[in-house]
Amino acid sequence: MTDFHLTSASWRDAWWAAGQDFALLPPVDPDFAALPLWRRAVLRGLLLPLSYRKRTHAWIARLNTRPVGYLYARPQGRLLLIDSLGVLPDFQRRG
Hints:
By secondary structure, this protein is of the alpha+beta class. It has 3 helices and 5 strands.
């Protein structure tokens, strides 16, 4: 079974991320920006579990134990604002 986890980034994770060739995703996709404000707020709020909202810096996405991407986000009130998101090209969602 595949386990997917978001964990707080450590210094070792930061060095790992610096050496990778990521498929960078923009902070706001144009189709996402076209959604009504209330719908964007709901979708953003569901991107991470509630326990992650209080953290303010970086997370590393891991598939089983292998790091596959990173996420920089910051809480603003009840919303979680994603500043930057990147995944390894092998794990980029297509279609």
